[in-house]
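Figure-free illustration: sequence to structure, shown twice.
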Amino acid sequence: MMRVRRSVTTAATTPLRSVRSNRRFSSSSSSSSSASDGGAKAAEAQESIFAKSWKIPAASGFTLIAFLQFYHLNNPTEEERKHYPAPAIRRLPGDRTAFEETMATQRQLQSLKLFPYRAASRLWGEVHDKELPMSLRAPLYKAWTYVFGCNLDEMRYPLETYTNLGEFFSRPLKDGARVFDQNPNHIVSPVDGTVASIGVVDASSPEVPTLEQIKGARYRLDEFLGSVPSFFSSDKQKPTDINKKMYHCVLYLAPGDYHRIHAPIDWQVAERRHFPGNLFPVNKIAARLIPSLFIENERVALLGEWKYGFFSLTAVGATNVGSIALANEPDFRTNTKEQDPLVGKCLTKTYEGRSADATRGDEMAQFKLGSTVVLVFEAPDNFEFTIKPGDKLILGKSIGQVP
């Protein structure tokens, strides 16, 4: 019996050991498989990290390159300033001034021109010509007034009557809001604005007279107006021209100023010249940086004669101020897409008879926001300005006189 029991016991335990052994093998196989899967996933994750990690050093590299390019662009070498000045600097007569040496180089100017100033200004024009809901007009215009210091007491119509920003910016004044000096020997301010520059046109090089952009920076009169006035041609000078000089005055209009331009004297306007151009800003920073800024920018010049000879008034556009309108040409437009290929050209119109003549105080032109008006005129050599740079001007007040 004992032997039988041993036999039974042996027979009974053998399958159990086998099962346990199989379980251990199965568990070992499962663990091995799981470890293998985990390793594959870890490898895939690591590979994914390495695959994406190139973006970080690449972005850092591009950022560094951009920074270095920006640094070199803003810090040209002395050699670059000497040998590669902006084209307008190279065209100036005589030696360059110390200040002109510090202005934008050819490469810097090319970089500035990459920004689509004309298109951006047209887009802004479309925005401020959109009709505003009646409920938004007064709050929006009052906010603009608060920021830029407009004088709403002088405007002719109530705020709600200006359907869009464009109408508000070029709003007319009440009758009698400005009184014009009527002395025929006085030149009055054609705008509300600030004096940027005044002086005598530099005729040390008679063939290439120059104007002052800011102290130490010049630009050519012939390029600004399209030609040199006959005053500088000795074969066309009259005996009475001997005791005369050519003067200039630059007036800046801020966004809060009255934006219409009036005749500063009684004069016969013979010609309009339109120069499609860029629309750089015309603030002090731009005037110090960009050579011949007023030649680069879009402008409209009215040329004619007054009692002492040549007289011109030029409205110069700026960023977001590319639209210049003329009172005697309702259909005239500037900064249109069709004019883009004509940048740098001169489009001339000759007025027939006395159709464009103006009397002191007559409205002549307007533009949006603010920009610059440049007067270039002939006067006796005893003419004297009664203003100085930095003065705030009121339309109609005297800016100079012949004693």
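We now fold a second protein in the same way, so the two outputs can be compared directly.
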Amino acid sequence: LAESFGLMPEIGAWVLGEACRQMHKWQGPAWQPFRLAINVSASQVGPTFDDEVKRVLADMALPAELLEIELTESVAFGNPALFASFDALRAIGVRFAADDFGTGYSCLQHLKCCPITTLKIDQSFVARLPDDARDQTIVRAVIQLAHGLGMDVIFRRRLHQLIGRNGCCAASS
């Protein structure tokens, strides 16, 4: 609904700011740094997106390395004109994740030139593991491909020995 009324850029900017503000509040003597992952919609990402993110990080005195921006495949790979904005953020340490990877817009050329640092394998490939041999093959191939390109791999929802054995490094809910 917010997307259809054109409210997502404002809402997204608020979410980014509030999440970073909260992370700033948590900082203290006993604070253990962790990566903050924020989903970003297509309508948020424009030519000034990198400036907005840099401003929020500077205002909150947060290291860029602690921020990971999660993009759907269509946003991550769908508009090469945005790669310059993504590259500017990557240059200061911000990480990018392709969310729900494998269900949409990706192709090998995009993986080669897009500034993605993490692939989040869509749960549809993980849900039937280890029973579905085809899903096993796809998951193994994606993990191997991602690692070969220097990317991390995350899967959603279910932990399986197959994934751990093949080098998947994290899970998310």
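Summary for the second example: The CA atoms of residues 65 and 155 lie 21 Å apart.
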